Each structure stands twice: as C-alpha cells, then as structure tokens.
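User: As part of a screening pipeline, I want to sanity-check one entry by hand. Below is the sequence and the SMILES for fe (ii) ion. Please return the complex as structure tokens so I can compare it with the automated output.
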Amino acid sequence: MAMGLGLGSVYLLLLCFVLTSCCNGGISSSYSRTNDISADMPLNSDVFALPHGFNAPQQVHITQGDHEGRGVIVSWVTPNEPGSSKVIYWAENSNVKQHAVGSFVTYKYYNYSSPYIHHCTIKNLEYNTKYFYELGTGNVTRQFWFTTPPEVGPDVPYTFGLIGDLGQTFDSNRTLTHYESNPAKGQAVLFVGDLSYADAYPLHDNNRWDSWARFVERSVAYQPWIWSAGNHEIDYLPEYGEGEPFKPYTHRYYVPYEAPGVHLRFGYSIKRASAYIIVMSSYSAYGMYTPQYKWLMNELPKVNRSETPWLIVVMHCPLYSTYLHHYMEGETMRVMYEQYFVKYKVDVVFSGHVHAYERTERISNVAYNIENGLCTPRNDEYAPVYITIGDGGNQEGLLYEMVDPQPKYSAFREPSYGHATFEIKNRTTAYYAWHRNQDGYSVEADSVWFHNLYWKSLSDSSAASL
Ligand SMILES: [Fe+2]
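Assistant: Here is the complex for your manual check:
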C-alpha cells in the first residue's frame, strides 16, 4: 500500500502534519495507552463479593443529606428480608451512641425484584467530626465511618474528587483504586453521572445495579459521593412494560433535593466547605419556564460568594466537547444556560458522558447572535472552565475521534481513563489535576491553577479604579 502513495499524497500528508502542528489551540496528548480493556468484571470477582452473614447489609453508600453539610443520607441494601432501617452512630471521641431510623423501598423491573433498599438521613451532625456508624442487626452488623465537612466558610480548604461514567469494568476498578490512592486525598466525590451501565445487559439486568454498588462501597461508604444522573440511569424499556424513566436510580440513590411541588428530582444544590455545588439534570426538561429553569433562575442569584466563593456546576452532558461522539449534544443546554454561568461567574462546570478527558480554556459563546456571525467560542477570562471527566471506566470503550485541528478553546484532551481532583486552598485559589489510571498514583497528566472568578473580578475592578 505504501508503495502506491504518489508524490501528491506525500505532499498532502506533509501538509496535514504542518497544519495539525501549527494550528492547534491546545494540547491533544500524544500519550498512547498500553491496553484498551473495557470489559466488565465477572460477577464472581472479589470486588463484588457479598458480605458474610444472613441478610448482612451491603451496597452501603452515603451522600450529603442537607443543604449545609450537617446531614448525611446513609443507604444500603438487605437481600433476604427487610431487617432494620436503623443507623446507630457516634462521634469518634464520644461514648454516646445515637440512632436514626429511616425506611426501605423495593421495586420490580420486568422480571427482577429488588432487595430491600434502605435510606436513612442523619441530621444535625457536628462539623469536621469523624463519626462511626453501624448497620444491621444481631450478629450481622457492619461498621463504617465518615468525616463531616468543616463548617461552611470562604477560606475552608477542601478537596473534591471527580469521577464520571464509572461502570464496572477492569478499568473502572483501576480508576477507583487510583482515586483512593491519590495523595491529594479527596474528601468527597462529585460524580458526573452514568453509574452502573446495567442497561447494557439484556432487559437492563438490575443485578448489575447491585454489583456496582458492592464494587464502589469501599469508597462511598466512607465519604459522600454527590450524585448526578446520566443517560445510563434512565433505564427506559417501555416495550417490556418499563416506561418509568430512572426507576432503579431513583429507588437506589437519594439526594437532598428541595423545591416542593416542583418535579425536579435530579437538580439540587449543596454547600460544602467553601464550595456551592449546583447539580443540574441533562435529562429533565430545561427549556424556558420549566421547573429546572425556574429553579436555576432562583438559585444562581442567591449564592453568597463571600460565604461560598467557589461556584461549581455539575451536569452529565458537557456543554463543550471536541470529541466527535456526542458532539454538540449539550448545545441546547448551552444556549439556555451559558449566559447565566457567565453572568454569575461559575468557576467550573464538570461533566461526563464523553468517554475521554478534556479541559477547555476559559471561554464563552454568549456574544453570538444570528446577525453578528460570532459563532465561535471566545476567550473570556470571566467565563467558566468546562471539564469533561467521563473517563471512569464505562463499558463502551474510549473515544478517539476528535475535531481536527484542535479548536483553540480546547486546552487539553486525551482519550484515557482516569479521575481528577479539585483542591480548594482558600477563597482565591484552587488546584486542579487529572490522573490517568495507568500512571503512578501521584502522577498528574494535566493540571491547572484556578483563580476564583468572583474574587478575581473584585480585585480586577478595584485595580482598575485606582
Ligand atoms: Fe452518558
């Protein structure tokens, strides 16, 4: 074949090389993976092992249980009988044991009947305190622990992990191990959607929802994962009588949502340390006058940046991505909401969905209207950075095809599995790093310092007025 290349083809190749070398805006990493395993781990893998004992609690996971960080929702499953929905808990330096009682739910999904899924909210915890908690009855109790966040305040350091599109493949396990072993020590995970990929199985085999929860228990029983819903949570199968979207997810994963009377099951906000986290739903209605729109219009103006300087948005589908798969799927959401992200100085938007990694420059495309032709994202020092972290491990493999040449607004992109951390230092500064799951635990494949947009705008304007 090579012998068949004419001189014209060689010139064309050279031209392409020069163009891609000269015109790229950011970095398209040349890192080459040594393998591309993306198969699910078999059900008899040790990571899915059942705890010992009759009706032993399993699939234990916690998430923030209120708006301020003094509540925790504890969820778990009992397989044989309902058992108890009670959580016994105590502070590390206290002998006083307290308890909270939750309740359980079950659901059927075609020919699958769920185990007993317990949810119990513990409220009014002390800040910055290690708590132990115990589940189960009789001889079959299991004990875990978590640490509550520091009291909300502008200069409170805090480190979030970022994981998305995790699934239950061999790479999922490697990514989770990397996160657990990362010396940056994430204290809570912002999970950007697509959890178990159970819907990849015939009839959306819900046993894979169970196995996934057993797999991640080793992390999420000990630190909260802040959930957002992805498309693999929809589990829509009307031809088999399963026409209720998000049925397994909504039974298994509770979040602290508000907005009474408004059907907004997946959009909610929390304060945690020095961050204000807004979780949006890519798969709920979001057009003008929808509940999500009204909620966000109410939510953004009330964020007090003197209290929580870091304004972070989480949603599954990215607004900016330069991979060809899912290209511009988030465009209508961008048209709706980017203007508000810019107006309210959102620091960073984390998304998943695209099974690869990408970080943009600070950019916006809000200047565009159909007459001015400014339809290209522009550098905007007060606009968010958009980070796609849909590279947890998934079940469908990595995405390699990208817009070429790399658009200027794309700062770094690479098809590899991994996770990231966002380390808030104080009100003005945070450090972000992405960790490829094939490297050593402390290796940062991409990193950048963040300067808080709100405080930067204040210092810029005071400097300008001098
Ligand atoms: Fe997705």
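Points to compare against the pipeline: The domain at 164-193+266-465 is CATH 3.60.21.10 (Purple Acid Phosphatase; chain A, domain 2). The first strand starts at residue 27 and ends at 28.
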